[in-house]
Amino acid sequence: MHKDLSPAFEQLKNEHGPLRQLMEELYEQAVTMGKTGDEKSYAQSLHSLEEKVDSFLLMLETHAEREESFFFPMIFELTGGENGPIAVMEEEHREAKQHFVHFKEKMSTVGVTIDKNSAIMTADPVAKAYVVLSDHFMKEEMVLFPMANQLLVEEQKDELQRQLMKADRKK
C-alpha cells in the first residue's frame, strides 16, 4: 500500500523537477563538448556551461540546505544514524558538490582558446555530478521520502512543513 506523501515531502520532491531539467541541460552540454567546433568555440561553450552551472548551483544549494537543515536531522537517528541512508545522502551531496568544485577549478585556467581534449576533460566533472545527482534524486523519491513519510508522526511532518515554509519566506 502506497500512502500519499505529506505536503513537506511533496514539496521536496517537486523541487527536483526544475533541478533535474537544468541538470539534464548541463549534462547534454558537457557530454557533447568537443563534438563540433574549434579551439575558440570550445572555450565559448565551456564559459556558457560555467554560467549555467553557476545558476544551477544556486538552486541546488537552496534545496540541499533545506534537506540538510530540516529533513535529514529529523530522520537521521530513526534510520540508522552514521550507517543509515541519511549518511549516504549527505555523502552524495558532498560528492556532487566536489565534482562542481573540480569543474570550477579547471575553468579557472580556461582562456580564449582551448583544445578539444582539454575541453572534454574540463566538462567531464559536470557529467559526473549529473550521474550522482540523478541517482540521488531517484533514491530520495522512490525510497527515502516514502520511508520518512511512514516513520515520522504527523506532528513531525507538520513541523517539517512549517520549517520549509519559514525558509521559503526568507528567500
UniProtKB/TrEMBL annotation:
Source domain of life is Bacteria
Query: Which species?
Result: Brevibacillus laterosporus LMG 15441
Residue intervals of the Hemerythrin-like domain = 10-148
According to its record, what are the GO cellular component terms? plasma membrane
Q: What protein name is recorded for this chain? A: Iron-sulfur cluster repair di-iron protein
Q: Which InterPro entries did the record assign?
A: Hemerythrin-like
Lineage of producing organism: Bacteria, Bacillati, Bacillota, Bacilli, Bacillales
Q: Which Pfam families match?
A: Hemerythrin
